[in-house]
Structure formats: C-alpha cells, structure tokens
Amino acid sequence: MMGEVNMAHGLQGMILFVLWLAALGATIFALIHAVRQRPDAFTAVDKLTKPIWLGILGAAMLLLLLSLGGLGLLSFIAIIATGIYLADVRPKVDEVQRGPRW
Question: Where are the membrane-spanning stretches (predicted)?
Fold first, then answer.
C-alpha cells in the first residue's frame, strides 16, 4: 500500500516537472522572440512597448526559475504572461513585420 502511494507521488512530481520545463521553454522562446523584434512593431499593432514586454517576460522567467520545478501561484502568473505574449502579441508583431500570409 505504501509503495503505491510513493509511486503515485513520484509520478505526480515527474508530470509537474515536465510541465514546468515546458513553461520555462515557452518563456525562453517568447523572450528571445521579443528581443529579436523591432521596437516600432509593438506600437504599430497597439501593444505594450518592447521594453515593457521584455520586462514582463524577464520577470516571468525569473518567477519560473524561483519556483524551481514546481507549479505554484507565481508559476501560473508567469505562464499566463507568457501565454498572452505568444497568443496575442507575437502573431500580430510577426504579421506587421512580414505582412499578411495570404
């Protein structure tokens, strides 16, 4: 009975660690993407400025690193900030720099 509990706890910990790694990878990707973009592209699509997004994503990465493999409240805040950048800001910034894809 005790062995089953330990195995379940170990599996849960492994899943949380994999999710944390995915969140960290997404945040690093978003931060690198933001660094490589022109500053005027952010304001051209009515988004926050490049320095503000760099600060938000840098803080998100710091929060994830401070949580060190766990998914606490600060990690969820970081994941939400990264998700907003990747889902809302990144596509519009890419489109304004490359033009529409059709």
Answer: 12-32, 53-86
Cβ within 8 Å of residue 33, ≥6 positions away: 90
Task: Map tokens 């089953």 to a residue.
Answer: 4
Reported as a single tens digit per residue, the pLDDT across 19-43 is 999 999 999 999 999 999 999 999 9
Amino acid at 96: V
Please tell me the distance from the alpha carbon of residue 8 to that of residue 90, in angstroms, as a whole number: 38
- pLDDT band, residue 70 (cuts 50/70/90): confident
Other beta carbons within 10 angstroms of residue 82's beta carbon come to 24
Q: Can you tell me whether residue 23 is helix, strand or coil?
A: helix
Token pair, residue 35, equals 């660094």
pTM, two decimals, is: 0.86
Q: Which two tokens stand for residue 39?
A: 């500053």
